[in-house]
Design goal:
The protein is an alpha+beta fold. It has helices at 2-6, 10-35, 65-83, 89-115; strands at 42-47, 50-55, 132-137, 147-153, 156-164, 174-181, 185-190. The protein is built from four helices and seven strands.
Length: 191
Amino acid sequence: METWWSSMDIMQQIAWAIAISTSLIFIVQMIMTFVGMDSNVDFSAEVGDSSVTELTSTPFQLFTFRNFINFFLGFSWSYIVFDGLIDSKFWVILISVFVGIFLVLGVMFIFYGLSKMVESGNISIHQSVGLTATVYIPIQGNMEGKGKVQVSIQNSVREYDAITKGEALKTGTIVKIKEVVEGNILCVEKL
């Protein structure tokens, strides 16, 4: 092993050191990603009198630790491969830089594609306007008090506070949702 290491020039030794260390870090990152430990992290830092907070929720940031590892992974392994095939160190380094950049962009493209596959399960109360609902807790008439209605949105039954401008509504009455008032209260009318 010692003769193999000493037979290389300093650039090859540096390339092998980078290749081995970044490969190990890459394997740890990959395992953490598949296990689910690679979630979004909130980084905060104090700068002068103000607090700067950066959320790393977007997979399209260029200068991240993951991209740093990916670049040096591509750079070092391509340097090792092309060093024996091409005589000019300049061309070997230039090709290795392009391979590192290509690897970073490729991984970013893969994460971009994966992010498009995410489906939001959020249901907005505004999606209920125009739908029919059933009174769950009686609603006082003339907007004098709140009750509750049950409405099916996206195959999910939701329960919301409700008021009515008309007559009082009893439990089980079918109503139509007219509008959302005061943020999260529905205004309904009897069908």
